[in-house]
Amino acid sequence: MALVLNIETATTNCSVSLSKDGEILVLKEDNSLGFSHAETLHLFIDEVIKVSKIKPSEIDAIAVSKGPGSYTGLRIGVSSAKGLCFALDKPLIAVSTLESLAHQVTFRDGFIIPMLDARRMEVYSAIYNSKLELHREIQAEILTEESYSDLLKDHKIYFIGNGVEKTKSLIQHPNAVFIEGKLPSANNMALLAENKYKKSDTEDVAYFEPYYLKDFVALKKKA
Question: How far apart are CA 77 and CA 210, in angstroms?
Answer without folding.
Answer: 9
